[in-house]
Amino acid sequence: MSIEIRQLTHIYDAGTPWETIxxxxxxxxxSKGTVFGLVGGIGSGKSTLASxxxxxxxxxxxxxxxxxxxxxxxxxxxILFQQPEDFFFEKTLFEDMASGLLHLGLTEExxxxxxxSTLDLLGLDHQIxxxxxxxxxxxxxxxxxxxxxxxxxxxxxxxxxxTASLDPKSRKRLxxxxxxxxxxxxxxxxxxxxxxxxxVSEYLxxxxxxxxxxxxxxxxxxxxxxxxxxxxxxxxxxxVMYGLQRMGFDVDLNVVCLEDAxxxxxxxxxxx
Length: 272
Known about the structure:
This protein is an alpha/beta fold. Among the domains are: 1-76 and 184-229, Rossmann fold, CATH 3.40.50.300; 235-272, no CATH class. It has helices at 46-53, 93-103, 108-122, 138-151, 168-181, 194-200, 218-227, 236-246, 258-271; strands spanning 2-12, 20-31, 35-40, 61-66, 77-80, 156-160, 186-190, 203-208, 211-217. Strands 5-6-7-3-8-9 form a six-stranded mixed β-sheet, with helices on both faces. Strand 8 and strand 9 (211-217) form a beta hairpin.
């Protein structure tokens, strides 16, 4: 059970003077039960790849299959866009969340139960269900959009900059939820927050100008970035550890949280 991407190429404005190769022969496998990070600079192709995985477009060449079939929006893939306001169209949040569930054939009782349990999972007040999504602050709106996607129980979930506009408490809550639900589904986590991607992901890929520069485990990624001497691909915490290594400290580069880094430094000082 996986997303299989083979020789995927996507071209914008093909055959014109403005022709741009957004994705160039991408090969990736994303298995269920994992969090797969996707990082890269502006224009690297991250959002284009996310849209194609969600079935929101047709590649110029190559293929994407999800559990052996072409992507089908709303069937087994959910996507949280960077702009959460694009997600809503009904008068109240409840109507927005319920519309997709009713199309799945759920009863009204099942719809209410699923919506309320999802809000509880994210720590959201049930009172927001009676409000217009456009009267919510941006952070709450993003969490509400995430909740709406989760209610559909997708087998694959694409999150494009999911913690943007969130305060630290809400960001931490969202990351905790992602870790909790990732055992049953595949989550593709797209973000420029490298420390966040490293902390939540098991595997990741780096895109550069539409090509895969690296794919593998998080620890393999950290080693690769250090070997490339490419600090722009290292989270700040790992840049600090890398700098300590180069100064002669016996510390492990592969740390994903501040507590691990502090422990590594303490042990290194004890050995000196």
